[in-house]
Amino acid sequence: MKSKIMKCGVCGEYTLEAVCGKCGNVTKNPKPPRFSPKDPYGKYRRMMKIWTR
Ligand SMILES: [Zn+2]
Description:
CATH class: Mainly Beta
Shape: elongated
Mean pLDDT: 81
Number of helices: 1
Distance between the termini: 16 Å
CATH architecture: Single Sheet
Number of strands: 3
Largest sheet: 3 strands, antiparallel
Strand order of the largest sheet: 2-1-3
CATH topology: Rubrerythrin, domain 2
Structural class: alpha+beta
Bound molecules: zinc ion
Order of helices and strands: EEEH
Helix content: 10-25%
Strand content: 5-15%
């Protein structure tokens, strides 16, 4: 995934910028990383994704 969709916690605007273009507040990632290095099942989930393709 190249682009990181960020979401403003104040007005709910989705943006690719680190700062909301509407209200100027700092945006944050609405979703946790899909594959966390701490996730022991991430490897298997990646394999599953390849299989279901
Ligand atoms: Zn905003």
